[in-house]
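User: quick one
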Amino acid sequence: MNANNYLVLAAILFTIGAFGVLVRRNAIIVFMSVEMMLNAANLAFVAAARITGTLDGQVTAFFVMVVAAAEVVVGLAIILTIFRTRKSASIDEASLLKY
Amino acid sequence: MIAALIGLPLFGATVLLLGGRRTNSWGHYLAVLMSGSAFLVGVNQFMKMVSLADEERSLTQHLFTWIAVGRLEVPFALHLDQLSIVFVLLITGVGTLIHIYSIGYMEHDENRRKFFAYLNLFVAAMLLLVLANNYLLLYVGWEGVGLASYLLISFWQQKPSAAAAGKKAFIVNRVGDVGLSIAVMLMFVTFGTVTFEGVAQSAANANQTTVTWIGLALLLAACGKSAQFPLQSWLLDAMEGPTPVSALIHAATMVTAGVYLIARAHAIFDLSETARTAVVIIGAITLLLGAYIGTAKDDIKKGLAGSTMSQIGYMILAAGLGPVGYVFAIFHLLTHGMFKAGLFLGAGSVMHGMHDDVNMRHYGALRSFMKITYVTFGLGFLAIIGIPPFAGFWSKDEIIHAAFGQSILIGLATLLGAGVTAFYMTRMMTMTFFGEARWEDDVHPHESTNTMTIPMIVLSFGSVLGGLLLLYVGDIEHWLEPVVGFAYPAHSVSNTVLIPITLSVVLLGAGYAWFKYGRRPVPVTAPTNVSFLTKAARADAYGDAFNEAVFMRPGQHLTRLLTFFDAKGVDGVVNGLAATVGGLSARVRSTQSGYTRSYALFIFGGAALIAFVLLLVRL
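Assistant: Done. Structure below.
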């Protein structure tokens, strides 16, 4: 099976994720979209590793997983705290930090 | 022991200034005590000095090293020799008498303690000036007396005229001080030292031009402090201060500091003919200018101030004559210190009895109301116009004699000055004590209290005997000779010819004044249809008008221009930059909306742009 197909799939998944980040208001959905983009990137790394026959892409994919896990912990904690104080998970309402 | 001279009055000033109102009741006694004990210390030192041989008479007390930076080493050392000791005795002696006089004169002033604190401060600073052993330390005393003078001229600062006069004295003196600082710097650069001794030793090997410039810079300093042309304008306004201040600072001591400076720096002036000539010319101009201004003043103190200018002109002129003159400059300084202080105290006593009116046109016939003042003032009058055997005769005659030795023109100037002096002093005397009474009915002239009359009486002894004693008993020529040098004038008019001529000129001036003011009634208001010369003299020979037109107005325009440039130019650039950045930021900050999705769009947009550009570059 041609490895380039995986790259195309990664691009499709990344676009869907980016679209989700831009258009959805619910913080959880936005978060899920971010995860999707990360995993699309992982897929691209692994596919690239397969094409070039080296391990670099695979190693990077592991790094991304670790960072993503850490990010989930912090991000979910923030979202929960915001939800508790504002009774809403809409990211448009959490817009106090501005000029 | 020398340090005690300065320490005593300085202690008095410190206690009175820091002690505040608690010292109000006894402050003036402490000040008198400190000044008086400094005088006793001075007398003690003088007695010791008299018993020593000529070459052992100069003492140096090294207190500590004041400044030691690289090549520059300035000791804080005091030097007492034949020249300083006469100044010490004059300053503390006349100073103490004026302290006593001030007890009575300032009795009703609520700030009397402050006045005495400043007087003590002045005495300390003046003693530091004459006791310093180097030019830099002398500079400290020089500025100290300037400060005391400023504080005391504007002592009645609630009067705008007094406040302005103080400021004027301060500013004009700064011009002279620039001269002194330049001289000190030149000395350091040229000789590598600023002590009197070091400068005197190395001056002979130095470049002639440099020495001349040092001399001229010192002359500028002397002009400022001694109110010599062209820096004379402050002295007449300085009469706004209380009269004891005029007597002590602006007649007897501080204004003669310039003469001291020139005599002290004689090593410089001995080497430079040009600098000496400049000194003589300045002295001659001032002695005529001051006397001329004195002839038209109706204000008794301003008349005396003009006279002070003129008499210091004599001293400066004598100092410029070189070794034939230094001794007589100091001699005239001493006699003048006594009789002029006496005259000022007399004027103060008259003012005290006349409700502080200074206009002589409101006086007249006071001789029977103020007998002591009349007699003491009269003795001072005889001394200043130079009637033998009173003090001024001896010193002024020696100066005229030495001046004729220099050149006929300078000699004639001093002779003319003597005549004009006789004129304005006789005018002052007749307008105040003779003629008919011209005061208002509610004025009751009366003699002053003992604290005021006793110093006047003591000083009048100086006016009578000072000259004789100094010349014949003190042998002032040979007393000062080891310090400043002395030579008889080489070829001058013989004294047997000169004295009768001088006396007849003096009598001519006095007689003319008597004819004009003694025999005719004096109008109560000053006549306005007078000659141009009188008008000019009343306006201080337009010295103020000149300074105002040439220095003050252009200066004000310059500052206005600079402020404009500062506000619009320098501030304009800085403020404009800030305004641009601020305006731009106001526009940019609207992108900080706080909406996460909007930021995300920027990030994606940016990333897409970069990707697009990368692709474009590769293709």
